[in-house]
Amino acid sequence: MTIVLDQRSDQSLAVYIDGDLQFDSRDEGVYHELLALPALALAQARRPKRQLRALICGGGDGFVARELLKSSAIKQIDLVDYDPTILDLAQNEWPELNQHALTNPRLKLHICDAVQFVDLAAQAADEYDLIICDFTVPRDQAGARLHSIDWYQQLAYILHPQGLIAVNAASPSQTPVAYWMMYNSIRTADLNPKPYRFALPSFTEAGYGDDWGFFIGSRRALRPREFDHLALAEPREFLHDIEQLKRAFAFPAALAEKRTTAQPTKLASDALLHSLFAPTWDEASGTDWTSLDFVHDPAPLPKPHTSPTLVPSAVQQALQADQGLDESQVFEQVVQVMPALRAEQTRSMVREFIANPLRFLNSLDLRSLVEALLRRSRELPRKLVTELRLLRRHLQRTWENPQLLLSRGLRIVSVIALVIILANLLHPDTTYAKGDTSPGSGATSSQSMVRTNSPYDVVQAPPSTVAGRGFASSTYGRGPVDEYGTYIPTTRRYRYYGSYYGGSSYRNYNRNQRPSEDPNEGGALYRLTPETDILANGEIVIILTDQAYLLLADQVMTVVDAEDGLPIVFLQRDEALIWRTHRELDRQRRGLDGSVKAKQDWIDWVSWAGFVPWRNDDQAELNNIVQTRGTLDQAIKSLGSIPANQPAIRVAPTAGGFQLFSSVWMNAEGSLAILEQPDGSKAYLNKTGWFRDAALTQPLSEPYPDEFRTKVLVPFLTKQTTEYEAIKKRIEADLTSAKSDLSLLNSDKTEYTSIQTSYGPSDIVDYGTTEIRVDEALRRTNDDIARTQQLIQILNDQLSSLPKQNDAAKKFLQSLK
């Protein structure tokens, strides 16, 4: 998972997870006031003398908790979020925004899965007066479960009969089918929801729709008059009064009508995901339907959708009916069948098809496409295979005359549209493959590139291909893209001079002699790790602080002032860092190689279609991936010679010293920084000077780099000491994970040893996703065990030395100020 904090010049903050906007501080109050305060007010009105107990599912950013804590009627809040990273950021990066809600004594944090927590609460017969679900829009089956009938039935079980539930949903205008599917799932669970919506400027700007939808419900149906005299908690910034709130419950009647056909979903269904990834951008306008006009919604509840499906069963059956077929209705249903894979392309193609069927068919080798699909018939529902075979027979007679083919009516048009959708879904275009390709899902993205006194030879496999749309979007080149194709919004800008500035004798650099030329300036093209960027010219930079970064080169490393691009100090090239950076570059370059091949295969495969709406976009994306791969080639070249073997783990230049970052250390007493210089000598630096020796008796002749103290050491140590607890937790988590890995490796070793003893060394066994000889599997497993044992030892050492390092850092920081 990649988390980006975009701190703007106006002091506002936007947070992105894997490229999706989570909140923008400029209008997050709109969202959280609308989600939390109406339900809170209703709960208080229903039970005015009771101290309320609330459950927040999700909401790790602390904003819903902030809203609830405005009320003295809230006695206790249980906040359940599975992601400790978000909770840590909420407590340490934006505590002022959430008003320190997560450390409020009325709130108890539970870092666990919400489903498990609710199951345990149900078993214990716990009961809540208020439940708020603040989940992100689901992107997978696990997320879709949190909008299923089963989930809401579990919540109903732990909700007091007069209690309230509030749910974050989706955009009613952009994904209306998905929105009303969520609504009907809550209705089916007998929670009597009232839908409402509001405009969120940041969500609209990010492309998530012109409005955003919520639901509020209860086991005891809400009566319209309950909204007349609500006492909304203070202070409020965006939700002004009750009349404004009531207007939020109004919808265009044509939009509300879609609730009559939107199926609620059970656990196994993937219909909600299909609808979420298939926006329909409903253009209905007006406010002539409001959910406050009734107690119980009179609209019939559609039958629940209960199973995974490529095409709804009703559509499959209708397409095979010989008579009594409502062709227009079936065609509309077919167009709505948008898989969660390249949905925007499929929809564009179907729209072009609808606009000019003859033009489309004249450019399509439909027979070849049908044959290609039938070759993969095992992946299709049996009835669809039958339908495709029937279409193949018709094509043998009518393909020479597309007009005659269309004369068969909307049924044949529906089948052709379905073929297009199936082709887009079933072709192995792995550039957009399903699976866990979330940025940061492997270990490398979370490791610190700039510290090198740690085991760093275990590198994750490259992704088979990119999954994001960063290489294809119009924003390519304006900000960094990572190996997964995720565009990363950022404000980082870089100014820098050539690495050789100052001549070959780097220690003779005179700070007072500024270069006459302007510095290079620009943003990054590629994000190698969260702290490491690659510029468009292939230069590699590592963020040290907000005011300085490390520029890698083939002979020297330079600490650069981010404001003016001038070198602050030159450091000895750290071969361990160079080796590690090269390995990561090579891994990600190999991933881009796979992306190029997959994309080219896709472009070649759709050669049966002379007319496809996305053809230019595909080619542009391919070109951008190729360009980025070339940038990584430049980056590798900029590193110069690479050590043939993994360098030894770095040893402190002074007994008991701690590495701050590559080639910069702190002594055990917390009184000196030790800089490894380009010529191999050491520089010992304190607040007032730097010296050739640790006794501080031989001053260096070069000007004292005060910017290194103020722009590098002070902010670096400040961050390190304030994040002590988070660092400790991360090391503990890594240690737990490593011990679990070791246990699994030892189990593998036992299994391989048994197989080799019984069947000999040449027997073939599974090793990961490949098959190899058992003796080779045993050798690799032993190597992995040795590396993991080394990792465990080093993590234990880091954990034991961390308190001493923190004490030394505090002492040194105090002396530097």
Automatic annotation (TrEMBL):
Q: Where does S-methyl-5'-thioadenosine bind?
A: D81, D113, A114
Is Transferase set as a keyword in this record? yes
Q: Which reaction does it catalyse?
A: S-adenosyl 3-(methylsulfanyl)propylamine + putrescine = S-methyl-5'-thioadenosine + spermidine + H(+)
The answer to keyword Transferase applying to this record is: yes
Q: Which Gene3D superfamilies match?
A: Vaccinia Virus protein VP39 (3.40.50.150)
Q: What class of enzyme is it?
A: transferase
Q: Where is the active site?
A: D134 (proton acceptor)
What Enzyme Commission number(s) appear in the record? 2.5.1.16
Domain PABS, by residue range, is 1-219
What pathway is this protein said to act in by its record?
Answer: Amine and polyamine biosynthesis; spermidine biosynthesis; spermidine from putrescine: step 1/1
Q: Which PROSITE patterns match?
A: PABS_2 (PS51006)
- For the region Disordered, what residue ranges are annotated? 432-451
Q: Indicate, by first and last residue, each region the UniProt record lists as having compositional bias (Polar residues).
A: 438-451
The biological processes this protein is annotated with in GO are: spermidine biosynthetic process
Residues that bind spermidine, according to the entry? H32, D61
Domain of life of the native organism: Bacteria
Task: Print the keywords alphabetically.
Answer: Polyamine biosynthesis, Spermidine biosynthesis, Transferase
**Pfam families in UniProt:** Spermine_synth (PF01564)
Q: Tell me how this protein assembles.
A: Homodimer or homotetramer.
Stored PANTHER family = THERMOSPERMINE SYNTHASE ACAULIS5
Which family would the database say this protein is a member of?
Belongs to the spermidine/spermine synthase family.
- Protein name as catalogued: Polyamine aminopropyltransferase
Q: What is the organism field in this record?
A: Herpetosiphon aurantiacus (strain ATCC 23779 / DSM 785 / 114-95)
Q: Which gene encodes it?
A: speE
